[in-house]
Each structure stands twice: as structure tokens, then as C-alpha cells.
Amino acid sequence: MNDVRPGSSPLPPHLRGAVSRQPTYALVGNPNCGKSTLFNALTGLKQKVGNYPGVTVEKKTGTTFSQHGHPITLIDLPGAYSLAARSPDEAITRDVLLGRRSDTAQPDRILCVVDATNLERNLYLVHQVLDLGRPVIIALNMMDLASEAGLTIRASRLEHELGVPVIPCEAANGKGIIDLRLALSRPEIALPRHAWNIPGEIAPAVSDLQASLTADDAKAPLVARAEALLLLTDRDSVRVAGSKPLSARTAGILAQWEKRWEAEGTDWAGVLVNSRYEAISRLAADVVQAPGVSGRSTSDRIDSFVTHPVWGWAILGSLMAVIFLSIFTLAEYPMNAIDALMAWLSDGVRAAMPAGDLRDLITDGAIAGVGGVVIFLPQILILFFFIGLLESTGYMARAAFIMDRLMSRVGLNGRSFIPLLSSYACAIPGIMATRTIEDHKDRLITILVAPLMSCSARLPVYLLMIAALIPGERVPLGTKVGIMLLMYALGTFGAFGFAWLFKRTLLKGAPALMIMELPPYHLPRIRDVLMHMVERAGMFLRRAGTVILGISIVLWFLAAYPKASDEATGQEQLAQSFAGRAGHLIEPAIRPLGFDWQIGIGLISSFAAREVFVSTMAVVFSAEADDEDTEPLRQAMLGASWPDGRPLFTPLTCFTLMIFYVFAMQCMSTIAVVKRETNGWKWPLFQTAYMTGTAWVLSLIVYQVGTAMGWGA
Amino acid sequence: MTPEFQTIAALVVVAVAAGWLLRRALAKRHNPGCGGDCGCAADEFKTKLRR
């Protein structure tokens, strides 16, 4: 074999490991190896975020400093398991490292972040990176967790075998960061001496491609070798805008070899991958000392129950029930306090100001609108506390495992779980998280069904409707929890049902496999959970203080103008206002669902955001109420009636409204994000139509069947 | 505070709120997130982007 290997000479000067100017390091690593934590630990706030041109993949660069105060640039590349890219973000990592991108210079050096608890798996990417023959430093992250798992990692042995600096560290605790900074500051870094034996039947093709890539594609010899190996394994190569295409000669050589192997029946990619795995396996056996086989670990024993086909579902259901039970019981006192505060504020303004539009705007618009939403803050915080708690113990990965049994049956990709899970908080981060899904059709299916998961903006609507469910008495706790569980289950199973339908009709494709790790259980970090809760509280209050406040003010105007005569009642004033006219306009379409024009105002306004429905109801029923009346929203709603005197909010109407909100696409921000992620209006319009159509049809069925059964009274 | 003054003041507040909402809806977003309400981008990045 006459190819140039890493560590062999001669090497061109730019590859000798020494960088005279400000060096640029690319941070690479598997997903969840702690790469971003390490990037944050090294750069602090000295970061810049942008996008790679042509794709919606974040480009994060930052600056750290050597021990002499010289700046060092770091590029945080998207996580990848291999340089054989399967998704646009993995393709970015591959193309930047190979110098294929015209918008990003090839980094001088590479900082490879490795999860010490999963060294063997992480070494596959390391192995490919070392093939590039560029100066590499390995950060052996999560050493504390490896130690807890009883693993002994011989870092010096790994360093010796690979010929590159290996720095053990714990990015989350800030341990080893100084050592790493010192390593990054080295003026010269030895080039990897590591090489592996390319199987004999493939080696001539690698040499041919390497020569062509060097001569015709202007690649440095080592990059050309790595690129040649990649071309032979990366059969479904993802090409993204900004990456340079291959020269015609190289593409011709590749096609020629592939044709020959196909004729011989040689699985060339399989041969290469297996050969690499064998080398990695030998290396890992030499470097990692696993604990003696002493039976199953504690995590394994817990998992035998938690991931059991029957007990697993029972535990998941029980946990959800406990969470909702806590939401309703623990939040009662702070909610009453917020309610009292809003009433006190409203009464204070009424006492301090003479009657007039400004006073009405403050009390019926701003305080009623914002207060109507803020009152649900305690319940939302409790929900996020429990989600954070489950995440930090490692249970969420088990929940993903249990759900995957169902997801794989409906044809959803295993990688869809995290986007769908994120969508319980908000569909927008969920939709953005679909960028890690390699298959375009699977990604689109996940985007289309993600907004069906009940997001936190639906929570205030559900809670208000549950509170108004039984007129004149308190709703039993068991009923509240049961209905809440039902709403979340309806959204989840609705998403799975539509995914199944799309997978078999619009977006046909092969079923996907799920490969995931179950991290060991550990005690939750309460500080992190509380910080997450505080962050969510800040976001919720910011939203209430800005968007909800703005919409409440505009809604007050729409409900108060044009003015009726002085003798008009609140109901008459609202009916002939702009909002009332809009509500009347859509009433024929929603009357079969049991909704009148006042609810119609809420349905229209909540297109801005679902929780605006609650503030709209607060504004609508405040506008109708007497000037001096500050009765809670629930009572005001329960007092509302149809023109013939029938109560407007019956238990059936409340339940139908909840069903409508489970399925309706009532969120402009989500529509905008789907438009951007799918690069056009076709899919967001389809999504809005199918979701809102489903919401209407199901609400119609529920209301009409319920009425026929005599539940409408 | 006369009722007429209150009406003018209320309409000014409504106009400001409507203008702000409109501007927010039409503004070109620099970051790939939702605009800052759902936690889809880390706070420190948003701070940097605002500068």
C-alpha cells in the first residue's frame, strides 16, 4: 500500500502540528458527550451564534485564552456518531473537518470530546478524525461518571496508542479545564501515529481515490486519504449547500470501483467498517478496565421493572398521575394568593380612579388579561419541577424506551422521541430538534405531529375548563386528574395515529430502528431542577408581561369599541363591538360544537397563542360584568348564557372546548417555524388544515353525541 | 381626570400596544428560535444577539 498515512513523513508544513497564528480548534464529539458543556466551560460568554449558510444548523464559535493570554478560537460543531453523515447537521461536521465548505475554513486543530463512560462507541468518530492526520487533542470527559460506573480508563495508555494528547476532565464540574486549556495552548501538537490496516481488497481503491483527490480536488494527501475512506463508506452521503462537489474524475473512479465490487459481490463499506470496529475493539480492551462481572448493576435491576412491558406502562401512568395530582393540590394556595392579589389590584385602581376608558383598560384589559394567565404560574412551575426531576434521575430515557415500542409500531423514528418530548413544553423547540432526524420523510412526519403534544400553553386552557366543568361545586380531585391525563393521552395518541397515517400515505418509507443508551440512574441535582424551574417562570412571566399584556390591551379595545349607547348593558356593548362582530361572524361554524360568539372571540384571538384564550375570556367577561364587580373568571363564565337562557358553559361544552384545543393548530409562532424548517408554505398550511379540521370534526362528534345522550344540560 | 382625557389616554395605550405587536410580528428574526418566548435558544445567546 503506497498511501500516505498519519504520522508518516514527509508532511507539508501546514500539517506539522505547529500553528503560528491564532489557532482554530474544531470541537467534535458524539451527541450527549458533554461537548457543548465543555465549549461553554472553555469560552464562557465569549460566543457567537449564527447559521451555516443554506441550512438551519447553528454555527457556534467562541474564544478561549491560552495560559499566556493569547486568544484561541473554538468552533462547536454539531454532534455526530460518525463522519458518514446521516443528517444535515452531521454533514456540516464532516464538511467542516474535511475543508469541503467554502464558508468555513478548515480548522487548524481538532478537539475531540469523548464520553469516558462509553469509550468504545465514541472511539469510532475519534478513529475517523485521526485519519485526517491533523493535530488532535482528546478530552476524556465524564471521568467522574466512568469512575462511578466502576470503569478504569488508562488515559496514558490511550495517549500512547494514539499518539495524541489525552486530557481527562469533567466539564460539568469544571475539573480538568485548566489542563485542557494548557493542552490547547501548546505551540506544537504531535500528529497522530495511529494507523489501521485497510483491508487488502479495498486498499487499491483508496490509493486511486487518494491520488485523484490530491491531484484534481486540491486536497492535502492525508485529507485525501480520509476523504477516500469516507467516500467508500458514506453511501447515502448528505450534501448540503456550501459543500464542494467532487471533481468528475474522482466521481468516475469511485463509480468504477463500486461497479467492480458490485459485480464481485463485495460489500466494500461493510468490510471497511468491520475492519475499523475490530481495531477499535482491540484498543478499547487495552485501555478500559471494566469492573469484575458481579451480576447486574442497580440500574439494571431497577430497569427490569421500569422498562418492563407491563410494569413499565403502569409506572409511567402512575408517575403522570402523581404529577397531575400535585399540580392540582400543591398549587391551590399560591393560586388563591395570586387571585387575591389581582382582585386587590383591580379594586385599588377602581377606588383610585374615576370611571372612564383608561380605568376600564387597566382593570378589564391589562389586569384581567394578564392576571387570568399568571394565575396558572404555580401549576406550570410544578409541572416543570417534576419534568426536571425525572430528567435528572435518568428516568426520561426509560420513558423514551417504553414509548418507542409504540412509536416504532406507528413507523416513527426513534430520534423523534426527543422532539416530541420537547413539544410537551413547546412545539417550537420540538420542531427545531427534528434537525437531528436523518430521514427527510421521518423528519417531516415528526414536524407535522409535534404540535399535537399538549404544550404548556394549553395547560391554562385545560385548567380553566376543568375548573368550570361542574357548575356550583368543586370538581373532585380524581376527576380533575383523570381529565388532565386524558387530554395529554389524547394529544399523544393523536400524534401517533397521524404519524401512522402519514407514514402509510403521504410520506411512505421504511420503518426506522431505534438505538438509544439508558444512562445509569442517579440522584437528581435539585439545584439544576430549581434553576430550570426559575428559568421557565421567567419566560412565562416575560411572556405574560409583554405579548399577553399587549394582546389583552388590544382585545379590550376590540371589545369596548365602537361604543354602544350609554343605556346599553355589558352584553349589548360586547355584542356590537369589533370583537363581538368577529365572534358573530364565525358563530355559524362553531355553533354545532356548542360554542357561541363569545367563545368564538377566544378562538380567534388564541391563534396568536393558545393561552390567550384564557385572557380573552377574562377580558370578554370583565367587559360584560358590572363596573364594580371583580368576581373570579370561573364564576363569570358559569353565569354566561345563550339568548334563550340556557347556560353557555355546561360540562359538555367545557369538555368539547378541551378536545378542540388538544387538536387545533392555534399558534402563529409554530406555523412560522414550520414554514422556515420546511422551506415553504405547503406543509404549514397542510398542518394547520389537518389539525384544525380534526379539532372541528372531533369536537362536533363529542358535542353532538354528548347532547344526544343527554349530557348537554 | 376627565372621561375625555381617559378615552384619549386609553386609545394612545392601545395604539402603542398594537404597534408593538405588529412590529414584533413583522420583525426579521436573526436567531433561529421562536423570538424569545419558549426557551428554544439559551439565554446567553439571546443576550449576545440583542447587543
What report would you give on this structure?
The complex is a heterodimer of chains A (713) and B (51). Chain A has 713 residues and is of the alpha/beta class. In chain A, 58% of the residues lie in helices and 6% in strands. A seven-stranded mixed sheet of chain A has the order 2-3-4-1-5-6-8, sandwiched between helices. In chain A, strands 7-9 form a two-stranded antiparallel sheet. The longest helix of chain A has 35 residues, at 526-560. Chain A is elongated. The N and C termini of chain A lie far apart (86 Å). With 51 residues, chain B is mostly helical. Chain B has helices at residues 3-26, 43-50. Chains A and B meet through strand 2, helix 14, helix 18, helix 22 and helix 29 of A and helix 1 and helix 2 of B.
Features:
heterodimer; A: 713 residues; alpha/beta; 30 helices; 9 strands; B: mainly alpha; 63% helix; 0% strand; disordered C terminus
